Model the fold of this input.
Amino acid sequence: MMKESSISPIPSDFEQIKKQNESGSEYWTSRDLCITLGYSTYQKFTRTINKSIAIANHKGLNTADHFNHTVEMVK
Done:
């Protein structure tokens, strides 16, 4: 029987798609999140992103701290 301490934890879906920038900050791309969250198309997910940005603005949050608009070529 294996010791419990020798079993490696299985990373969550979000841990598997997490990225890290040069300064060590963690982030997730919307394209990766779209797939992980089960959206059928990216266009449908962009509506969710836009709603999230609107809610953050309404709550007085600086959206630049939470949403980074980038353009990435689709492969």
Observations:
- The chain has a mean pLDDT of 88.
- The chain has one domain: 11-63.
